[in-house]
Amino acid sequence: MPQQILILDFGSQYTQLIARRVRELNVYCEIHPFNKIPALSADIKGVILSGSPCSVRDQGSPDVDLSLFEDKIPVLGVCYGAQLIAHKKGGTVMASTSREYGRAKLTKVDHHNELLKEISLDTQVWMSHADTIKAVPDSFEIISSTPSVDVAAYRVKGKQVYGIQFHPEVTHTLQGKELLRNFVVHICGCAQDWTADQFVESTVANLKQKLGNDKVVMALSGGVDSTVAAILVHKAIGKNLHCIFVDNGLLRKNEFEQVLDSYKHMGLNIKGVDAKDKFYTALNGHTDPEVKRKAIGKTFIDVFDEESHLLTDVKWLGQGTIYPDVIESVSVMGPSVTIKSHHNVGGLPAKMKLKVVEPLNTLFKDEVRVVGKTLGIDPLILGRHPFPGPGLGIRILGDITAEKVRILQEVDSIFISSLRNAGLYDKVWQAGAILLPVQSVGVMGDERTYEQVVSLRAVTSTDGMTADWAHLPYEFLANVSSDIINKVKGVNRVVYDISSKPPATIEWE
Ligand code: XMP
């Protein structure tokens, strides 16, 4: 294992951000729930206690036994984490009476303290708490203050235990990264050697050892995660990795051929399976989004299962699971409520009785892209917008037919290629078209038409959890609209979706 920082999650919305900031310093870290702490190993160089929506004054609020770490490795409490340490050591934590939300300035900074080295006086920090530390015990020294928060940061005297009530992980804390660097590099002694090259090297070595001469089967989707995962496994075991790419009849125009082709160029041992008819039959007459998702998911599992049975002696199933999925499934708050059943291949390993190998399950999405770049994967694949597993099946509202798929593929293709041509593709997080179950009256030449309506959707986002509709130029939208209506038979009206998430979602179904 690489050197690492342990981040204990008490349920704050910012915990993942702390991890991302630490990793930006080329230091590996892992998030674990406060109540499932891993055994301390020599690789763990320090621990960060995260924030929380709870109050240390509440009965049953998240707690941790500090003796697990204290005097063994350095400890940094952030917000709730800082309040918890203070509370447990005899300090006073109370509901705050003054404003402790938003920007503030550090008007006292103890530059002799290692945590605050190079942190400027008057630097801006971000506060976000309802409780505050009113008094600290004699064993604490206050190392930083703001005009309204006396205990902005403290150190437990003679110990490597620190607390800060502001949030170093958010960009509004202008020197947050420096402070985290002071902690992980200078106080914990991490070497900052966790890089994409190093990740590739150690992952491939581990995969070689784990998989030996075993065969692995993997479903590829053309997306970033499954592609990068496959290339890593391929580097480790070569032809023993058997990839399957299923045409479910719900892909983008020409996507099956193009993606299959680029996989072959990458040297992958891949089989393309045309299962369009199976999917259309399973979807026949279904209009409910969740029923459609389940039908697509089940058909996929059947097709994949059937294909992998044609291979002999397969022991492993490779998957492109990434870190946020892992954190989500063990989160303090529990997995978030299912609004849409996203993970439609979730039933695979159980059905196939295979062991699972997930080489990316410690990486965030942007880190996957960096690793992909290191591996020399085509930037066109790495930069692709996310595309849902059920594909156009959830962008054709109502029932699905081959003809509707054809129409939507044409519309989508015009929209996406126009975005590329206008240099807008990389500025939006995700884009696509939706075929509405609505017909509208139009006029073409002297003829009255009564045809389909399509909606264009483009959003900006960082992780898909929240999103804003992309403010595409009117001129661009005007051109795309007339292109679509002129070129796609069966469509006589184009609308643009101007809803943000929340309260809307990115997909319409
Ligand atoms: P929503 O519509 O929930 O979408 O705002 C958030 C992100 O998830 C994608 N999405 C899916 N991905 N299977 C998938 O693999 C699905 O059933 C599914 N539904 C939505 C969506 O495209 C967006 O990137």
UniProtKB/TrEMBL annotation:
EC assignment: 6.3.5.2
A GO cellular component annotation in the UniProt record: cytosol
Keywords: ATP-binding, Glutamine amidotransferase, GMP biosynthesis, Ligase, Nucleotide-binding, Purine biosynthesis
GO MF, any single term: GMP synthase activity
Statement: the UniProt record of this protein carries the keyword ATP-binding: yes
Pathway linked to the protein: Purine metabolism; GMP biosynthesis; GMP from XMP (L-Gln route): step 1/1
PROSITE patterns, per the entry: GATASE_TYPE_1, GMPS_ATP_PPASE
Class of the enzyme per the UniProt entry, highest EC level: ligase
Entries under InterPro entries matching the protein: Class_I_gatase-like (IPR029062), GATASE (IPR017926), GMP_synth_C (IPR001674), GMP_synth_GATase (IPR004739), GMP_synthase (IPR022955), GMPS_ATP_PPase_dom (IPR025777), NAD/GMP_synthase (IPR022310), Rossmann-like_a/b/a_fold (IPR014729)
Pfam families assigned: GATase, GMP_synt_C, NAD_synthase
Primary role: Catalyzes the synthesis of GMP from XMP.
Protein name: GMP synthase [glutamine-hydrolyzing]
Lineage, broadest ranks: Bacteria, Pseudomonadati, Bacteroidota, Cytophagia, Cytophagales
Gene for this chain: guaA
